[in-house]
Write a structure and sequence with these properties.
The protein is mainly beta. Strands 1-2-3-4-5-6-7-8-9-10-11-12-13 form a 13-stranded antiparallel β-sheet.
């Protein structure tokens, strides 16, 4: 039989002390939230509100301006030196909402997040300055891990590239493209890419490991998409099925270093 404490007043004293601490912290201004952030690339400016419920006029991650932010911070994870908050970002290019968790050392995890961003951001992260991308990308992210340097380490979720197009030296409308991503037991991010019946016929796979990526694509054109057919001929010679097969690989940029 479990023993009852001979000093029940000690429990009450602990609860009262904890309530006093929580009440005091709840009154701290939002600028104190910056002290909870250990990721070197994350910067909050124009803070207002409180630590628990506040906002920032501008959020930057490395050289990326993300926009304005609002957050609601959970108290319990702070006991383990971990910050967990529900965050909403609204910027000129980015719109996002989800749960953000920062662990000791600077690692950032995202859960149940949605985001809408320009395809140009993908071009920056893939570090392909000569490949112009247009359109908007919608992301539904179940799980994301960024290490303390901003490198993508884990990814589970789906993406939809709407009004997809390439610009620059090659120009063509691609339609709508989708991708599904997951991280395997070896820490390799794998994604499957396909089209949704637009001008571009697409089947492909992408892998991300450490700081490098590889994309294997089978590309074709539907109907009378003349500009797209011409663009595909520049990429390579069509096979017997009329499709062009290409591989793109190289180093990625950490999110905080993307310009």
């Amino acid at each position: 039989m479990a023993r009852l404490s001979k000093r029940p007043w000690a429990r009450w004293a602990t609860l009262i002390a904890l309530a006093i601490v929580v009440a005091a912290v709840a009154r701290l201004p939002a600028r104190q939230a910056a002290a909870l952030i250990t990721s070197p690339g994350l910067q909050l400016d124009g803070l207002s509100g409180t630590v628990w419920a506040g906002q920032a006029a501008a959020v930057r991650y490395g050289e990326l301006l993300l926009g304005q932010a609002r957050w609601e911070l959970d108290a319990l994870p702070l006991l383990w030196l971990t910050s967990r908050a529900t965050v909403q970002l609204e910027g000129p290019e980015l719109s996002a909402h989800g749960q953000a968790i920062q662990r000791p050392g600077g690692e950032i995890r995202l859960r149940d997040a949605t985001a809408r961003l320009p395809a140009e951001w993908l071009q920056r992260i893939l570090n392909e300055p000569f490949l112009g991308l247009g359109g908007r990308i919608n992301l539904q992210l179940d799980h994301v891990v960024l290490d303390e340097q901003g490198w993508l380490r884990e990814l589970t979720g789906t993406g939809r590239w709407q009004q997809a197009r390439v610009t620059g030296r090659l120009q063509a409308e691609l339609g709508e493209l989708t991708g599904r991503f997951e991280t395997d037991s070896e820490g390799i991010i794998r994604g499957r890419l396909e089209d949704r019946g637009g001008p571009l016929q697409l089947q492909g796979h992408i892998t991300v490991h450490e700081e490098t990526y590889r994309v294997d694509l089978e590309l074709g054109a539907r109907g009378d998409a003349i500009a797209l057919r011409q663009a595909l001929q520049v990429l390579g010679n069509p096979g017997r099925d009329g499709r062009v097969r290409i591989t793109i690989s190289g180093p990625m940029l950490a999110l905080g270093h993307a310009r």
